[in-house]
Amino acid sequence: MKRLKRYQYERYAVLCQLAYPRIFRHTQYGFDPKGQQIVYNQHGKIMVRILWSKRDEEVIVIFKGSHSITDWLWSLAMHKIRRPSLPLPYPIHAGFHHLMTQPSRPNGRSYPEEMSVYQQVMHYLLPRIQEGKRITVTGHSSGGAMGCVLADMIETRYPKTIKRVVTFGQPAIGGWRLHRLYRLHHKTYRICCDLDIVTFLPPIPVYYWHVGRLLWLHNGKIYHNTPPVFRLGRTLLSWLLRPFSYHLMSRYIRNKDFFDKR
């Protein structure tokens, strides 16, 4: 598995953050003036941004996380389902399934031939795939979970199209069957910062499984594939020891910048 480089991490993290505001000036980040497509949810809110440029082989798909009370309520639907509306060989979290298959309505109004969020995303991506571009999927929170499912469906239908999957603070989205059949373990990076409680959700051990490679950012280090119980234990221990760490000389040396450089 290739390592995720710092500039890649920073790029995807910034894009995930900038995906939340209604206005996003994508050209400032190297994308073409017409290199953005937006997919809306059924309430007319932005849910997915698709970004690309002619000179770059990479198309970036950004899923926003839960950003309304309705989204958070759907996150509570923790049973798993499998339906024809998503071409999947495994069941996934019912709430996230709904969010991906809800009708995409730019103005929050219904249309005679409206498509689901998933269908709309694929409608925009297909021309880029036919051009030979490769897809990177990223997202925050529930957006990261849905991004994993989208990437797996694309890889199944168009092999070797997915470049990488990078998620931030992502909950699990499926069970052991998804974990076993997921095609992109070697290209998926799940970023977790310290004790991000959402990364432990849904709180049903064995019933839900994560996919890909965990990169845990903790105490200035990156830990790889640390089991949840060890993440929890190490975080609690660091909290307990933190007051004593301020007594170390390394802390005093690190704070030298408080003084004038004269």
From TrEMBL:
Fungal lipase-type domain sequence ranges: 60-204
Against CDD domains, the record matches this protein to:
Lipase_3 (cd00519)
SUPFAM superfamilies xref list? alpha/beta-Hydrolases (SSF53474)
Q: Which domain of life is it from?
A: Bacteria
Instruction: Name the chain's protein.
Output: Lipase
Taxonomic source organism: Vibrio zhugei
